[in-house]
Here is the input.
Amino acid sequence: SQQGEEDPQALSIQEGENATMNCSYKTSINNLQWYRQNSGRGLVHLILIRSNEREKHSGRLRVTLDTSKKSSSLLITASRAADTASYFCATDTNTGNQFYFGTGTSLTVIP
Amino acid sequence: EAQVTQNPRYLITVTGKKLTVTCSQNMNHEYMSWYRQDPGLGLRQIYYSMNVEVTDKGDVPEGYKVSRKEKRNFPLILESPSPNQTSLYFCASRTRQGAGELFFGEGSRLTVL
Here is the structure.
């Protein structure tokens, strides 16, 4: 399987703290994306980083990509209770047709 | 409102009884795909379609069929469901060109007894 893995599987932090989750993948990629899923709901796109980019920011989100290590990290700064969700990374192949999702990190932000 | 609509949202069925999960998008997207989500395994791609009449297998296609007769619709067909197909299913779409986010439906929870 080419599925990626995320670390940690679960993370619990206090409101206001930063949350960092990591994603590792197995093959060369075209892009890497991060998605958020509220319990049992559909996934919502957060941010996309291309294979030739190393870092990207969007609001309170910061994503890094290290293609030599086949890994990415998502940092959520100044977390809020509403950030409580599962977060998944997803990679697509060079054709852009097949997507491989990580196993997800469950984030709980305690008010 | 741009959306991907799946039906049914919840379904309990029995082994061997054919069923279809429908998926429709109103964004004129060329690309559509199906995923299943199981605890501890994340999402795995079942099938995808680049455009009308163009479909291809994803990571876990066994036991599933799809069709793409119209651009907006991409139904997932389980000809003879088995208990190991009990899962949460998601349909997603995106524009074909280059990189782009996937737009997901709200999911269809299927239980096969």
Remarks:
- The mean pLDDT of chain B is 94.
